[in-house]
Amino acid sequence: MSAHVPPELTGLWRREVITTPTGYRDETTRVLWLQTRSWYADIRVTADRPRREGATGFADYTDAELIAMAAVQGFAGELTATGNVCLWRRDLDYQPPHDLVDEATFTVRDGVMIEDGIHSQYQEIWRQEAPAATPLAAYRLAGGAEGMLVIVGEHFLEIRDRATPLAPAESLTAQVTEALAAGRRDAAIAALSMRICYGKVAGASRLVTLSSYPWLEGTDLGAADPAEWTLIDRDAPAPALS
What is the pLDDT of residue 133? Predict the structure, then answer.
């Protein structure tokens, strides 16, 4: 059984700002982190990410827009906390595989968390949006596909992996740029195909407000199919998926 994180870490967190010692500062990227007792999911979409009215897929976007969309980030996996140190294991990652360990120190006070990177120099400030949310539940996609569904109260974040894993690379932007330069548009689209959706559950509806697929924002995914998902964590009776 996975170890549980401190209760003050669970819930929905919204990032307010990230800064680095070099002067980098970002207050506009939309960043949401959902945390159960042991499992997490995270989505990060830049404010200038392209969105085309009437688009229904990546094929409706230009090459330049596809490159811009590769800046999206998102990951999911198990979080362990030892003292004031958190370690995020990335079982799913929108960006290519890399060797950097995602580990940081943290302090939480009055619903605000300050996170300071250990293996890279940065500071993120997070605000807790749903501190006492329940249920807290996490599911893995059943069958051969990889995916995770995290539920925090009325909030959900669902990640469905690509059909083919990414090869290691400097960044997804570099991979997509290289594929497009070589005339391999299908390969570029495949690299972007991890679907990440955040939104709210309302009865049998799951209304998407932020996604790596911009055309899904504002749409209803419908109820999750319980046959697709295997429960891996809960703090109370697991929420019905249908």
Answer: 79
